[in-house]
Amino acid sequence: MVSSLMALAWIIVFWQMPVKWWGGQAQITSSLKWIATLVMAAITVGVLVVLRAYYPWVVVGYLGLWLLIGMVDATERIIPNRLVALSLGWSFATYPWTHFFVITAVACGLGLGLLLLLVHIATRGGLGMGDVKYSVALGVALGWPEGLLALVAGIWAAGLYAVVLILARKAKRQDSIPLGPFLVFGGLLGLLGALGH
User: Fold this and answer.
1) What confidence tens digit (pLDDT) does each residue in 175-191 have?
2) Backbone angles phi, psi at 55, to 5 degrees
3) Quick check: 75 and 32 in contact, CB under 8 A?
4) What is the end-to-end Cα distance of the chain in Å, rounded?
5) Structural domain boundaries, residue 47
6) Residues sharing a CB contact under 8 Å with residue 62, sequence separation 6 or more, in sequence order
7) pTM, entire model
8) What's the Cα-to-Cα distance from 57 to each of 34, 81, 116, rounded to whole Å?
9) Mean pLDDT for the chain?
10) Count of structural domains, the chain
């Protein structure tokens, strides 16, 4: 019941919350809202009915935050610090506080963040700092090895999407695309992988 109410609350946020509050200026498109709503509903049903997770409300919390991150980045090309902070806060608030779990999760987050920070430096800002910070949040939330799976899957998905755009002549090689939505996709895969254990 709690998870269902949380999912409904997130869907209301998707449709009603102005982007400006999260750090942007534009309006989130209806297509993104519909996609997020359908994904939210599908995964919530999956968690509640099929996966039968012990703490489905924890999963629904991540799901809503991450979908919102993906929508804002797709619209504004920015991942607001407050959303990254909320994801980290949710992780620490819902952790099973065991010494090993916390150390591995935090180490994974710092490792992924360091990796993308090096890419940020190497590309002279071609990869945004929002992506770097969000990778830390993903690593902390998912731990090892699901955090790495999320990062790899997200980068591969972004690369495939870029190739499709170039082949369709809708983008050029020097054009950039927001990485956030693809990291969210990878994060959802990692989350499903973690639940499958």
Assistant:
1) 778 899 999 999 989 98
2) -125, 70
3) yes
4) 24
5) 2-195
6) 87, 90, 141, 187, 191
7) 0.85
8) 21, 23, 30
9) 82
10) 1
